[in-house]
Every structure is written in structure tokens, then in C-alpha cells.
């Protein structure tokens, strides 16, 4: 993304066909790669939820998996090759802060306790590029339930991996680790999702393997990749991008075409692959599901 550092720091309205869903699901169930990410019990139970169809053509896999933002691997969009060096097994996730019992859960144990499903979501980067992709994973609310937060918890904070394979961590300017957060109410919304797969295959490392947050109504920088810790706090966290540029990458980061980024318009978006520009929708088109979270809150900062 572009930040104010004076240094460098992106459909047609075709319907998604049931065939596409069927193909992805079959691939997930039968694909060799699936074996590495889904325990057999969970694999047999993957469902495709018809409530999450995007109303746009799916982005071709080759674009979504080769044009990425992942600053731990560098500032370029072309980090997919380097990201293959990240070791995603064994992996565990730590629950701490305001929880009934702080603990660390292995990825396989975690996957045995959730119901996997497939959701096709639109993704809108603050830099104005957009994609539409089929994720496999489970609701964020299920992760919160497993963590068992106390009633006093107001925020859910995600911390992501810092691994020796990540050369970008040597860039001293950035406030590592990558931290993101949402309110406990946002985390309970049905749209919040933890992805473990993409296009019916295990989640590619460049897209955030093995566990990646997906919040389709918010700008993409909220979608923390390679999550290693989930903490519950009373205080709003200082997030990675907000610490770097608070007027450019705010905590709320809800998509809104009417509120420009200080340095560019947010009124349209460029579709990865076709490069077609189309109008951006408030809450990335998910207002029906999420606008209620913000009723009474009219602060413009909700949108940047
Ligand atoms: N997560 C981590 N750990 N590091 C990052 O640099 N970049 C974010 C988000 N999650 C980022 C991250 C940004 S800016 C975007 S737009 C999305 O990941 C990009 O996801 P994609 O590469 O899968 O499209």
C-alpha cells in the first residue's frame, strides 16, 4: 500500500454457476492438496453456502494468487514465490487476554472443532483493486467461541506470524508484528470468516496460509494473514496500518465510495484480471448484513 512516508511503501455481472461451486467442492474433497489442510472428518463436511454468492464473475486463480499484498515478504505485489518458504506445519494458534483460560491450540485440533464451508466473497483493497474469490474456511464467530472470551472483552486482536523466511521483517520502518482488530460485535457478524482454503485447494501461502481473516465489507488490509495469536482486550488495539498512517488506514476501514482516501478516490475499483473499472459499493455491497453494526455511529472515520 501507499503510505505517507515519502517512500514507496489494487466484472462483469455474470452469475456464478452452480457448476463452478460443484467443481470447487469436488476439487476440495478429492484434491491431493486438501489432504494437507483438512482433517478427514472436516473434509467430508464442507458445505457450499448459497447465501454467499457474489453477483460477479470469479477472478481467475492465477491473478488472485500472484498479485498479493504481504509486507512481511516485501513491498512488491510479486511475493508469491518467496512466500513458498513459509513453513505452515506444524502451526498453532494462541488465545490470550480476556479469555476464560489462555491456551494454545494446534491447527489440526482447531480444524476438528469447526465446520468448514465455502464462501465466495468480493475483496476490495484500499488501493482500489478488487477480486472475487471462493474461500474455504469457517466463521470467525466459531473461532471466538473456541477462545471463550470473558464478558469484559470489547475487541478481538489478531497477530500474525514473524518467520525467518520473511525478508520484509528486516525493513525497520514497519511496526511489526502485523496486528489487526475488530470489535467483539463485528467478530460475531456472520460475514466474518477464517479462511483455510482458496479455489477449493489449501490456502496458498501468499494468500495467508494456514489461517487468514476475511472481512469482505472492510478494506483488504484488515484481512490478517498467517494468524498465530488471537487476543481479547478492553482497549482498542493499535493496528499495523493505523500506526503507520492513521489518516489513511483507519481502524474501522469500512468500504465507502463516498469517502476518498486522502490521496485517491475510492469511487471505483479495478477488477484483477480484466482491469475493468466498476463502481465501488458502500460496505463493499454487504450493507444489508453489516450496516446495523454501525447504527448511531456516523463518524466519517468508520470509512477510512
Ligand atoms: N496480512 C499480513 N500478515 N501482512 C500483510 O502485509 N496485507 C493486507 C492483507 N493481509 C497483509 C495482510 C492487505 S493490504 C491486503 S489488500 C490483503 O491482505 C491482500 O490479500 P491477498 O494478497 O490474498 O489478495
List the keywords.
binds ligand MTE; Sulfite Oxidase, Chain A, domain 2; alpha+beta; eight-stranded mixed beta sheet; disordered N terminus; globular; 10 helices; five-stranded mixed beta sheet; 304 residues
What does this entry look like structurally?
It is a single chain. This protein is of the alpha+beta class and 304 residues long. 19% of the residues lie in helices and 22% in strands. It has helices at residues 18-30, 34-37, 40-43, 61-64, 80-83, 107-112, 140-147, 184-188, 240-244, 287-290; strands at residues 47-48, 92-97, 103-106, 117-124, 129-139, 155-160, 179-183, 193-198, 201-202, 212-214, 227-233, 268-271, 277-279. The strands form two sheets. Strands 1, 4, 5, 8, 9, 10, 12 and 13 form an eight-stranded mixed sheet that branches. It has a five-stranded mixed sheet with strand order 3-2-11-6-7. Strand 8 and strand 9 (201-202) form a beta hairpin. The longest helix has 13 residues, at 18-30. Bound molecules: ligand MTE. Residues 1, 68-72, 125, 160, 178, 207-208, 220-221, 223-226 line the site of ligand MTE.
Amino acid at each position: 500500500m501507499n503510505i505517507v512516508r515519502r517512500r514507496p511503501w489494487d466484472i462483469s455481472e455474470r452469475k456464478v454457476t452452480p457448476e463452478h461451486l460443484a467443481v470447487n467442492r469436488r476439487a476440495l474433497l478429492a484434491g491431493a492438496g486438501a489432504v494437507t489442510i483438512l482433517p478427514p472428518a472436516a473434509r467430508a463436511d464442507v458445505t457450499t453456502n448459497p447465501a454467499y454468492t457474489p453477483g460477479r464473475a470469479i477472478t481467475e486463480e492465477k491473478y488472485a494468487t500472484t498479485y498479493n499484498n504481504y509486507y512481511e515478504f516485501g513491498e512488491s505485489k510479486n511475493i508469491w514465490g518467496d512466500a513458498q518458504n513459509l513453513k505452515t506445519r506444524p502451526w498453532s494458534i494462541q488465545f490470550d487476554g480476556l479469555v476464560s483460560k489462555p491456551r494454545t491450540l494446534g491447527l489440526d485440533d482447531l480444524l476438528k472443532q469447526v465446520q468448514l464451508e465455502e464462501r465466495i466473497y468480493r475483496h476490495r483493497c484500499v488501493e482500489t483493486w478488487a477480486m472475487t474469490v471462493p474461500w474455504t474456511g469457517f466463521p470467525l464467530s466459531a473461532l471466538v467461541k473456541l477462545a471463550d472470551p470473558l464478558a469484559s472483552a470489547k475487541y478481538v486482536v489478531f497477530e500474525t506470524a514473524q518467520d525467518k523466511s520473511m525478508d520484509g521483517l528486516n525493513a525497520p520502518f514497519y511496526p511489526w508484528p502485523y496486528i489487526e482488530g475488530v470489535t467483539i460485535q463485528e467478530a460475531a457478524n456472520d460475514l466474518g470468516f477464517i479462511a483455510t482454503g482458496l479455489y477449493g485447494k489449501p490456502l496458498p501461502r501468499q494468500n495467508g496460509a494456514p489461517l487468514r481473516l476475511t472481512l469482505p465489507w472492510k478494506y483488504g488490509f484488515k484481512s490478517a494473514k498467517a494468524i498465530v495469536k488471537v487476543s481479547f482486550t478492553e482497549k482498542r488495539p493499535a493496528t499495523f496500518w493505523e500506526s503507520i498512517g492513521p489518516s489513511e488506514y483507519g481502524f474501522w476501514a469500512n468500504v465507502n465510495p463516498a469517502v476518498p482516501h486522502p490521496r485517491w478516490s475510492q469511487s471505483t475499483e479495478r477488477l484483477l484480471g480484466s482491469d475493468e473499472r466498476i463502481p465501488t459499493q458502500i460496505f463493499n455491497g454487504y450493507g444489508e448484513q453489516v450496516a446495523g453494526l454501525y447504527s448511531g455511529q456516523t463518524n466519517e472515520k468508520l470509512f477510512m
